[in-house]
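Justification of computing resources. Each target in the renewal requires a structure prediction run like the one illustrated here; the chain below, 515 residues long, is used simply to show the kind of job we budget for.
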Amino acid sequence: MTPDLRALEGRPVIVGAGLAGLMTALELAPEPVVLLSKAPLGQESSSMLAQGGIAASLSDDDSPALHYADTMKAGDGLNDPEVVRHVVAAAPAAIESLMHHGVRFDCGSDGAPLLGLEAAHSRRRILHAGGDGSGREIVRALAEAVRLTPSITVLEGVEARRLTTEDSRVTGLVLAGGTETAFLATGRVVIATGGIGGLFLDATTPQGSFGHGLALAARAGAELADLEFIQFHPTALDSPERPMRLISEAVRGDGAVLIDETGRRFLQNVDGAELAPRDVVARAVWNHLAGGHCVFLDARRRPGAAFATRFPGIDALCEAAGFDPALEPIPVRPAVHYHMGGIAVDLHGRSTFEGLWACGEAACTGLHGANRLASNSLLEAAVFARSVAESVAGAPAARGSRQHRVETARPDPTPLRPIVSRALGLVRTEEDLRQAIAELLPRATSESPEADPAIVALMLAVAALQRRESRGAHFRTDFPHKAEKAQSSRLTFAEALATAREAACAPAPPFARSA
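Resulting structure tokens:
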């Protein structure tokens, strides 16, 4: 790290440089702000890998009210209605803002945006950029805009290792870059670090996205919410490559169907079939695989010969894997894709800890509920970036303190992946969750490189153990029914530790119980 951090003291610091972090920095302009990017700007973010696009009600036959209804239905009772109304109403303006910053959305010959259909949407409302390269195009444009904005100082190759606090408020960040560590004093921090896929063996997200921002917030004492709700994408390319390559839901929106090795379309009798909510499709695929079958996405008939034109990125992935999706079915299986839970925030992106905000996948706003509606995630990040920026700009510019220097190891989630994958997959049991908690507890309280990932994993497991029902993306074989009343969960690290210690000491139940 070469910058003079003393010169940057007191500025808002944004941790993470995907869509949420980039957009928040741009919305804060012209206020000076620091943006931390662990990788070179525009690389290795979950946003970069997004294929499906961004949802907004722009057509004559659509409306925010219909978008609201679809979002609420997919969320299975846990959405915050006020948040959903705010986001769907703000969607068209968010699209305009992205275009203002240089994002090139796909349009028809008449100049109108091309709108696609994805699971659980009642209308065509998905905007794409570059066909199936939406995330890549959005991050490209925003990263370029950030570099051209004088008020934004970008620190590349730098990550936050600790939030420092005093009197229940943020005072700064311990930073690490290469072999160096340093301290940056600030009273305003925005967590925009993406999801938790790096905790799992099979995920479509960067392997470094293990919930780093959640660990920072948890150590500080902020509340985390709905951690048990993890969305598995039903159609990841079944190959050894990590992160797993995604076969966008837009392919099913264009007519591709799921079949097994016999050619049977095993979802045709399910309500919504291939375009049912993701949790339904993912569990159906998982169950079919568990029954000894292979699963394929068959795009030979639709989109057929147009596949390469419609989905150039996915076509290239399939070609690299040795087959032509216009002529051969695509082997697929579910993989961790998105985390509905995260740092609990309000409509302004404020956490429960003073001086700390969160935006994007690291935040739990209440938009997604128990199961995210497809293509609402990029929308959430774009809409909340403005809300967060307005809130941060209106907060006191406290400089924080200067006395903190903490030596910490670079976090490593690798040893935890088998534990987390076994206990927190598509189907969960009390026995597996208790075993995972017992294995994660000593790691979460250690000073090892596993500690931060283990904190997040432990809190996930505790939240999943405490939710004794099946709802949305959370399915318990021992509690397969939905509770009468939908309730969000909130948890601090201290509370999770207390529950984990109790669970580790308690004997396992003698038999499975059903709600």
